[in-house]
From TrEMBL:
The keyword Transmembrane helix applies. Keywords: Membrane, Repeat, Signal, TPR repeat, Transmembrane, Transmembrane helix. The lineage of its organism: Bacteria, Pseudomonadati, Pseudomonadota, Gammaproteobacteria, Pseudomonadales. This is Uncharacterized protein. It comes from Pseudomonas cavernicola. InterPro entries: Cyt_c-552/4, HEAT, Multihaem_cyt_sf, Multiheme_Cytochr_ET, Paired_CXXCH_1, TPR-like_helical_dom_sf, TPR_rpt.
């Protein structure tokens, strides 16, 4: 776009009006016009696209912020390895952990690890960068192709000793978590959040990385965005609106903008493609992980390594307007105050929040530091707010991280639902019932749980307890439910179909939180016919958030060709989806996604090449191997498909997905006996996998082993009462044997879980 012309100088203006001054008829008009022009403020030159700058310039105006930042975990997140930055003792004895040995060596200012490489052979690898500061420091080793890999041996800063990140596993070169593999590739997995202005720079044709960054460490521009326009504004060269030349004014943007800025690193998320830049919307660059059973406890507390965002946005404090910098000084990242003082900024006898903008309606005036409240000796660990309301977990062996959902202890609920609890986790020497009774004596029995029944409803849905469907719908009707929690409930609806469930999912498509819209998109296909999906989802192709647009595109691609949308919006959506994957060609997942896109859109000629590239990137990414075998089989290369899966099951005999896929392939090829053996092996390797159990039961029944099939389905349904397909198959097999009494019992059990289930009709 051409830049608009800037204001004229006074001499240029005078020259422009000179011819008119020679005409007496309009001289007066010209003079008046000239006077009007002269009085107008100069039109500022337009601000250009912001560029990254050298942050040495920031200190001149922001000395206090820079001083606080210096020496922080952010500044020292990634450093060149040298005598001044490496904390580990490279003169130590070798570390042997579960059959894996690592040796250490220092030569002057160079540091070396002797370890098993990708080929299974031991070699010396030079440490290129340090990663982190404390409680542990990791080390990045440079491999051919520009790859920087995070080694799985780390230095415990407190204990001053080496340790292995996976001590219970024999992580050798054949293991997916080996330091040389895709899952430990720092170019794709780590460096973005340890540098400023990171560009992955993967060249798929060579293939190699040429990763670049503006600066090591998390600097000013990592949060505020590229500062070229800000510097021009500060020098008076340009005028800027209230954001002073930044894409985002963090100071005045509100808590959501600040929290999402921090979440770009402090969250479990997947990248949507490209090189994200600060200042944009979180769901345009990333898709944060939901509250799945693998990542979060049923009450929303952290479980797997998910960082802070997912727990904090569930909290009442987030909904009240609290932001990260209310508790953490934004430049040093340290707590603003020590001990309970950081909490009593708001939770005090006056019920007065620390600043305007935080809603005070939910605050209760009280002396929260009194033993009358916390019931522990003053100054003890139990008297600390964080001990009860921010219980944490250990990650990477030595890194203790606090939960940020600010939950209220509830030992009775924890005992009933199986989630952790601050009281039960601390007082392990006491019987749980004694803790539960003492808690009830102190605080009474609330008629409604502190979370409004969310955890009970989610737990009931996952366990398919009686009343599960009704409880789900009740919770989904709440207006005060945080978006991630509503999304978690929507994800359970496919097992509880009804008209009300469909209506809840349709309402989710209109929800202001993109997390809810994403969950609704994934839920709808299980609750309605493809023709209805084709009517509902096209509107989401132009959603405000990129993550939602991509999800809608993917779901519409699953429909038959005749039901997919047409027109410019659909074509643009397909281009955007393909572009998103093509910016991540270093990842096996993206290559497999592209292969799926091409297969669904009739570009079969490119599918095989993409899947083979995926397996070159990550030999442990088994979905690509299964998909490749299926593609070869569809292409008339059944023998090649068979050889591929046979070799895979021999190389990875404990991988259930490969045994299952091979079993299904053998069924299609008519080799029933060997197929059954493979299907049985898959079910044995993953006994909790409902899909494997169902397929095996059907195979057993069709091969004349009805009793075994029925017994397996009974056990499966007992473990997973919400398995509707397994319930239907079991009822059919029992009915064929004339066991109508048990069939009726299955129906009644389903009626208790979801009285509106269509199966009951």
């Amino acid at each position: 776009m051409r830049q608009l012309p800037g204001p004229l100088s006074s001499r240029q203006q005078a020259r422009r009006f000179a011819p008119w001054l020679a005409l007496p008829v309009i001289a007066a008009f010209a003079l008046a016009a000239f006077a009007w022009w002269w009085k107008q403020p100069e039109v500022p030159a337009l601000l250009g696209k912001p560029q990254w700058v050298d942050e040495q310039q920031c200190q001149a105006c922001h000395a206090d912020a820079v001083k606080a930042w210096q020496g922080s975990h952010h500044q020292l997140a990634m450093q060149p390895a040298n005598a001044g930055t490496v904390l580990g003792d490279f003169r130590e004895q070798p570390l042997d952990s579960n059959g894996v040995s690592t040796r250490f060596r220092r030569e002057g200012d160079s540091f070396w690890l002797n370890s098993e490489g990708a080929n299974g052979q031991r070699a010396d690898f030079k440490v290129a960068y340090t990663f982190g500061l404390e409680p542990l420091q990791q080390y990045l080793l440079e491999l051919p192709g520009g790859r920087l890999q995070a080694h799985d041996t780390a230095w415990d800063v407190e204990k001053q000793q080496w340790f292995h990140l996976y001590p219970e596993q024999q992580v050798d070169s054949r293991h997916p978590l080996h330091w040389s593999g895709s899952q430990q590739n720092a170019n794709a997995m780590c460096i973005e959040c340890h540098t400023s202005g990171f560009q992955r720079g993967f060249d798929a044709d060579r293939p190699r990385f040429d990763s670049r960054w503006q600066a090591l460490g998390v600097g000013c521009q990592s949060c505020h965005g590229p500062a070229s326009n800000h510097l021009q504004w500060a020098r008076g060269e340009r005028q800027a609106p209230s954001n002073h030349g930044f894409a985002l004014d963090l100071r005045n943007a509100g808590n959501q903008a600040e929290v999402e800025t921090c979440a770009r690193c402090h969250s479990r998320r997947s990248v949507l493609g490209g090189d994200p830049s600060p200042g944009g919307q979180l769901y345009d660059d990333y898709q944060p992980a939901g509250l799945s059973a693998q990542l979060y406890e049923v009450d929303g507390k952290i479980k797997d390594e998910v960082f802070e965002y997912g727990s904090f946005v569930q909290s009442r404090m987030h909904s009240a307007g609290v932001r990260c910098s209310d508790c953490h000084e934004p430049h040093s990242a340290k707590l603003r105050l020590s001990g309970n003082a950081v909490c009593t900024q708001c939770h005090n006898p006056q019920a007065r929040p620390r600043r305007a903008g935080i809603q005070a309606g939910g605050l209760i005036g009280k002396d929260y530091e009194s033993p009358d409240h916390h019931r522990h000796a003053a100054g003890s660990i139990g008297a600390q707010c964080s001990s009860c309301h921010m219980p944490g977990k250990w990650y990477m062996q030595v890194d203790y991280r606090h939960d940020h959902s600010f939950s209220v202890p509830d030992p009775a609920q924890a005992q009933a639902l199986g989630h952790s609890d601050a009281c039960l986790s601390c007082h392990t020497e006491d019987k749980p019932q004694a803790i539960i009774q003492a808690f009830a004596d102190w605080y009474g029995h609330p008629s409604v749980p502190h979370d409004g029944g969310y955890a009970q409803a989610l737990s009931g849905a996952r366990a398919a307890r009686p009343g599960a469907a009704a409880a789900l719908l009740t919770q989904l009707g709440r207006r005060d439910l945080p978006g991630l929690r509503k999304a978690a409930l929507l994800a359970e609806l496919p097992r509880y179909p009804s008209a009300a469930a469909l209506n809840a999912a349709l309402q989710g498509l209109q929800h202001p939180d993109p997390a809810v819209r994403l969950a609704a998109i994934e839920t709808l296909p299980a609750l309605m016919a493809p023709q209805q999906v084709a009517q509902q989802l096209p509107a989401l192709l132009t959603d405000a958030r990129r993550a939602v647009r991509l999800a809608a595109t993917w779901q519409l691609l699953q429909l038959p060709q005749t039901l997919r949308p047409s027109g410019t919006a659909w074509q643009a959506a397909l281009v955007a989806y393909e572009s998103s994957q093509r910016t991540q060609l270093d990842r096996a997942e993206a290559l497999s996604n592209l292969a799926s896109l091409y297969q669904l859109s009739g570009r079969d000629a490119e599918v095989e090449s993409l899947l083979r590239q995926a397996l070159q990137r990550d030999p442990h990414f088994h979905p690509a191997r299964v998909m490749l075998a299926q593609h070869l089989e569809r292409s008339g290369l059944g023998q090649a498909a068979r050889e591929l899966l046979l070799a895979a099951t021999q190389e990875y005999p404990q991988e259930a997905s490969l045994q299952h896929a091979f079993g299904l392939q053998l069924v299609r090829q008519g080799e029933r006996a060997e197929a059954l053996r493979r299907l049985e092996q898959a079910a044995q390797l993953e006994p909790d996998n409902g899909e494997y159990a169902y397929v095996l039961a059907v195979a057993w029944h069709d091969s004349g082993r009805a009793a075994q099939a029925i017994d397996l389905l009974r056990r499966q349904l007992q473990a997973q009462p919400g398995d509707r397909r397994g319930r239907l198959a079991l009822a059919g097999y029992l009915g064929a044997q004339g066991n109508h009494e048990e069939v009726q019992a299955l129906r009644e059990e389903l009626r208790d879980i979801n009285p509106e289930d269509p199966l009951l009709r």
